Amino acid sequence: MLSCDTFALPAEANFFGSNLMAKNSDRPIGEAQALTWTDGAEHARGETVQCTYISVPQAEKTYGVLGSKPYWIWGYEMGVNEKGVMIGNEAQGSKAAESGCENELLGMDLLRFGLERGATAREAMAVITALLEEYGQNANASRLYDKRYENSFFIADREEIWLLETAGRMWAAKRIEEPYAISNCYTIAKPDECSEALEKYARDKGWLAADERFNFAKAYTAPAARQTGAVPRMRRLRALLEAEDEPLDAVTVKAILRDHFEGTLIEPRFGASFGTFPSICMHAMTWDGSQTAASMICRWMENVGPVMRYAYSLPCTSVYIPAYCTGALPPLMSASGEKFDENSLWWLFERLATAVSADYERYAPFARIGAANLDEEIETQAAKAERAAARAARAGRPEEAKAVLNEAMNQSARQAAAFAIKQFDQIRNAIRKRGGISGVRKEFIEEYCERVGMEVW
Length: 457
Hints:
The protein is 36% helix and 21% strand. It has helices at residues 107-117, 121-135, 198-205, 216-220, 226-242, 250-257, 331-334, 345-357, 360-394, 398-433, 442-452, and strands at residues 5-9, 20-28, 33-38, 41-42, 48-50, 55-57, 61-62, 65-70, 78-81, 86-92, 150-156, 161-167, 170-175, 180-182, 193-194, 290-301, 305-312, 320-324. Strand 8 and strand 9 (78-81) form a beta hairpin.
């Protein structure tokens, strides 16, 4: 599983003037990933919480969390809590990996615990490392086949950004103070903080020469084919970040998340949807490949709180809509499930992306132009709503502020659904006029659509 690309921008490196995190979540194709809201709560002593596979003791207090999760998993791929702590994870593989079993936590479970129990980035990191040391990681993270991995985490709040990389039940952490990108490869050489036995374990195993300086990434990286896809994506992300002389704005951040190595030597052969080379916006070539399932951009805004932009399914044919920690989400934004659902934004955009992939060079330009125009319209509406909510909050009217933000989510969800349906209908009609789906992806698309109960022509 080649999974995910994430980057973080300190406040001075983006247009909004607050720490910002952005992530493309790549998952097995067809795994619906919608947004969910979980209320914060006080819990009685002795309570437990059921994770994806195991139960663990509940904390006395949890925070409200806006998170993005695969439909069948308890944990989150990415999200933000009411305090403004943002976390995204990456799949990793180390030489210290434990043999997989189902009495461990998923990285997504650890991520959710960090959001539910951490009021700051440091607190969230402490939560994750403590649970990691006690329960371990490496349970199966797929419904389609057996796939296990360790994890890295970007953890940010209003003041700090931390990169946490794990190997087995050990970990290394580094504070990030400049634009930084990660993928499915370790990057920390010298940690700022780490497990007590981290270096000794590597030396005892012979992963370092006798006189070699400790380098966590070099010592612990397991030789694996995933590196051939992960390292180029990470370098591409960093190159795109470094190419900007001015603080990044929303348009640039979204463009990075929609990137397929365009204009480079390794631009995917036969079009982005053919999936011959994993890109930041990743398209699956085979049934057991990974594909970008959702995309998140998150930051903090004074008097509003966490501000999220979220794209369902592949961001290159989707639109980014606003989401907030108001305690409510429109049903369109939170519906997912194993099979196609016309009342789910995720499935509406997944159907559109699948139809586009039938002939990406022919259909994608129209979808992308339409998405860009709607992105701009929604961004203008959302910014206006955020300013109005901030004014209401400053005036001591929090319920009015929430109502404004809730209406912004509802309006943009309706607009996004209408766009996905209209674009799909146009492409379906074009496919029908051409006699149905043909070409190299015909069998792939037909088998996928049959599996998830979705029609594209």
